[in-house]
Design brief:
Length: 451
């Protein structure tokens, strides 16, 4: 076969698929035997042939010029998303086979032609774009409506941060490394009539970092808390605010324990290399002084009591009243045991700097002497005939209740109003009840009748 015909056959193979090693060696050998003009004819002929048999498919975008971008939601692929028309954008492919686009000169979301700083990811398998970073709208200086761009945000040298951005620019200096990270060098930017030699690295995110979690969890506590923030994303670091503003990577670092000494809400984000910034997580810690407790519980007592007030919040100040009024921080501060000699209610609160005031603790005490024991006449003993037993008590205003069935008497037992007739062996039990007195102990008398 003529070498030109053989070369033509190999060239047709080359257009349709990569040459095998032996075909490639033969191709190079044939190439060395003929002039450039001879092969130029073959190349032109074969290229036209290849174009005539190859296929093309319009996969997306508009067939109109200068179309604006449709950005959608940041980080979310969607069928309707599409970068605006542009030129001079930087492109590369990641390890998953997805394509990426950065910046260039073209249309933003409004259709204005500007220097762009947006970042896009295209997934060929889904045929979907996702806006991954940068600005969707470019704000121009007053009096300028186009050909402007966002200024760079340089951040800290060598430290990746989601808000860092090279700014609007067109550039030819870009490449990818073995990890498929994108590198950008220099540019012709919008923000100055100059060229730059800045070097940038873009690490495609694996998705957002996990949301931070808090230990202990949000809640109401009676003491100062030490809060630790943890995250399931390897190597995550945290930025926090406690003043009601949304945290960014420029906010205070909170990679160590946080002391919560007043009621506050901690808001935190997690950032990790290779991941997008996490969603904002928050935890509200409500610090309230513990309600004071009483060493002696409410109740009726037969003698004076000394009551000690205590509080579970370390260092708390206790204020109390004994006149029924609700205590405040203007009430009597607790410094020593409170004597209770008469019926009264002690009410107390606790306060601590930075904490909310505790709820009111209350204990009610009744100090009442014991009513005297009822007296039986005749007294207990053995008798040969039926007895009429009188029960009396010298306690002023006392009422007597009794039983004859062995049960302990209460105020629901039989009320004593007249002598009790005892015609057979039985035991009478009785108590005395009087206003201002504690119930008497149970008095009893056993009568044995032996006719």
């Amino acid at each position: 076969m003529d070498s030109l015909e053989a070369f033509s056959e190999l060239l047709e193979v080359l257009y349709s698929a990569p040459l095998q090693q032996e075909q490639w060696q033969r191709f190079l050998t044939l190439l060395s035997k003929h002039t450039q003009s001879e092969f130029a004819v073959l190349l032109c002929a074969n290229s036209r042939s290849a174009l005539s048999i190859s296929t093309r498919a319009w996969m997306g975008g508009s067939n109109k010029a200068s179309e604006p971008g449709v950005y959608g939601t940041l980080g979310v692929p969607a069928t309707g998303n599409i970068p605006g028309a542009r030129a001079f954008g930087a492109t590369w492919a990641d390890s998953s086979g997805n394509s990426w686009l950065f910046g260039g000169s073209g249309e933003d979301a409004s259709g204005a032609s500007n220097y762009l700083n947006d970042i896009w990811e295209f997934a060929p398998t889904a045929n979907e774009w996702a806006w991954m970073g940068g600005s969707s709208l470019i704000t121009c200086p007053t009096g300028q409506t186009s050909n402007c761009g966002e200024d760079p945000t340089f951040g800290v040298l060598g430290v990746p941060a989601p808000e860092d951005n090279p700014g609007g620019r067109v550039t030819d200096g870009f490449w990818t490394d073995k990890s498929h990270n994108f590198w950008l060098f220099g540019s012709n930017p919008d923000f100055c009539a100059c060229t730059l030699n800045d070097l940038w690295e873009f690490i495609p995110a694996k998705g957002p970092a996990a949301a931070p979690t808090f230990t202990p969890p949000a809640g109401t506590y009676n003491s100062v808390q030490t809060v630790n923030i943890v995250d399931a994303t390897p190597g995550a670091t945290f930025s926090c605010t406690t003043i009601g503003t949304t945290p960014t990577t420029s906010s205070n670092s909170c990679n160590g324990p946080i002391t919560v000494s007043t009621t506050e809400t901690i808001e935190a984000i997690a950032v990790a290399k290779g991941y997008m910034q996490s969603v904002v997580a928050s935890a509200t810690y409500k610090l309230v002084a513990a309600t004071p407790t009483f060493s002696i519980p409410s109740g009726i007592y037969t003698s004076a009591q000394l009551v000690t007030l205590q509080d579970a919040t370390p260092g708390a100040t206790i204020y109390f009243t004994i006149n029924g009024a609700t205590p405040t921080d203007k009430s009597t501060p607790y410094t020593e045991q409170i004597p209770v000699n008469a019926p009264e209610a002690i009410k107390a609160i606790a306060t601590f700097p930075g904490f909310e005031t505790s709820e009111v603790g209350t204990a009610k005490y009744v100090i009442a002497p014991v009513a005297l024991l009822p007296i039986f006449t005749p007294s207990a003993g053995t008798y040969a005939s039926k007895q009429s037993v009188k029960v009396t008590d010298t306690t002023k205003g006392a009422t007597i209740y009794y039983t004859t069935n062995g049960m302990t008497p209460t105020t629901k037992s039989t009320k004593y109003t007249k002598p009790i007739s005892v015609s057979k062996t039985e035991t009478i039990k009785a108590i005395s009840i009087a206003k201002g007195f504690s119930n008497s102990p149970v008095a009893l008398a056993t009568y044995t009748i032996t006719p």
